[in-house]
Amino acid sequence: MTDKDQYKIHEEPFYQPQTDEVELYEAAYAARLPVMVKGPTGCGKSRFIEYMAWKLNKPLITVACNEDMTASDLVGRYLLDANGTRWLDGPLTTAARIGAICYLDEVVEARQDTTVVIHPLTDHRRTLPLDKKGELIEAHPDFQLVISYNPGYQSLMKDLKQSTKQRFAGFEFDYPTAAVETGIVATETGIDTELAAKLVSIGGTARNLKGHGLDEGISTRLLTYAAALIKGGVEPKAACRMALVRPITDDEDIRDTLDHAIDAVFG
Ligand SMILES: Nc1ncnc2c1ncn2[C@@H]1O[C@H](COP(=O)(O)OP(=O)(O)OP(=O)(O)O)[C@@H](O)[C@H]1O
Q1: 208 in helix, strand or coil?
Q2: What percent of the chain has pLDDT above 70?
Q3: DSSP track, 104-164
Q4: Residue 154: its pLDDT value, please?
Q5: Orientation angle between helical segments 21-30 and 45-56, nearest 10 degrees
Q6: Which of 2, 69, 83, 180 is the most exposed place for a label (fewest CB within 10 A)?
Q7: How far from the centroid of its chain's Cα atoms is residue 222's Cα?
Q8: What are the boundaries of each domain within the chain?
Q9: Which atom, in ligand 1's list, is nearest to the CA of 50?
Q10: For domain 3-172, which architecture applies?
């Protein structure tokens, strides 16, 4: 298997578009514009990029960013082995060489000195300097950079610099409407739509509490977890408490409010 094949997505991922994001992404890719996808956790950002990589038939390399990540983790480094030193490409370098879509998930977690390595790749230069190796890579014509971030987690210390932001075309995601989300939960997990609608209504209650004791509402991802538990035979109220409530709050009042909402829905 070549590097390219290894990173290709061979089966169509299930993705339910919310509006015209598929067509707009295709246009951004055709112009090789770097793309940012913003939105709350678990609302379909990663699934969208997987789907687009499949649709465009391009390899996808995903990197989960974190605050300990250094530029070398993205670009590459020399390793010591029995035969001496050997250069190992990082994921960004591999993507630029093979013409992959490189998806930097939660990029704002990375330190700013790490983030700036993407700058020359995201303007007209489309190059990546490997300083330690003394090599300048010209990105493959198919290469595209995609970053995601959750504006809800932003603080003054953790935000992208304008000089980074203004290199990207942006997509803003949010949780889908109840009807669309019901379809997503049902299709993704195979539960019936009536049950999916009940889960989505509990999600709606939690999202109304955002800013009133909850930092984030219940994500589509968690709704699919609850659905999977129920499908596996877990009693619905127990599944909802476990998948929808316990992970998102430590506050007893909020927990009780959400538990009551579950009791009301599953009577
Ligand atoms: N539009 C959609 N079509 C299909 N599935 C979806 C959609 N939106 C959400 N999902 C479901 O929600 C789950 C979470 O979505 P995803 O992993 O894309 O979230 P994310 O926005 O990338 O979250 P994070 O920011 O935490 O990485 C998916 O695994 C899928 O089950």
Answers
A1: helix
A2: 97
A3: EETGGGS-HHHHGGGGGGGSTT-EEEETTTTEEEEPPTT-EEEEEE-GGG--SSS---HHH
A4: 58
A5: 60
A6: 83
A7: 15
A8: 3-172, 178-266
A9: 18
A10: 3-Layer(aba) Sandwich (3.40)
Q: Which residues pair with 127 in a beta bridge?
A: 138
CB atoms within 10 A of CB 188: 18
Flag the least confident range among 86-100, 103-117, 124-138, 180-194.
103-117
Residue from 14, 20, 47 whose mutation best tests the ligand 1 pocket (most atoms within 8 A of CB)? 47
Percent of the residues in the chain that have a pLDDT greater than 90, as a whole number: 77
Is the pLDDT confidence value at 155 over 60? no
Tens-digit pLDDT profile for residues 207-236: 998 888 888 889 999 999 999 999 999 999
- Give 125 Cα–ligand 1 centroid separation in angstroms: 33
203 lines ligand 1 (CB under 6 A): no
Q: What ligand 1 atom has the least distance to the C-alpha of 48?
A: 18
- Check pocket membership of 76 for ligand 1, CB cut-off 6 A: no
* Ligand 1 mean position, distance from CA 70 (Å): 27
Q: Whose CA is nearest to atom 4 of ligand 1?
A: 15
Nearest atom within ligand 1 for CA of residue 37: 21
Task: pLDDT band for 50, please (50, 70, 90 cuts).
Answer: very high
Q: So what's the pLDDT on residue 21?
A: 97
* CA of residue 233 to ligand 1 center, whole Å: 24
CA of 219 to the centre of ligand 1 (A): 8
DSSP 8-state symbol, 12:
P
